[in-house]
Amino acid sequence: QVQLQESGPGLVKPSQTLSLTCTVSGGSITTNYYYWNWIRQSPGKGLEWIGSIAYSGSTYYSPSLKSPTSISRDTSKNQFTLQLSSVTPEDTAVYYCVRDPGLARYEYWGQGTQVTVSS
Question: From CA 5, how far away is CA 100, in angstroms rounded?
Answer without folding.
Answer: 15
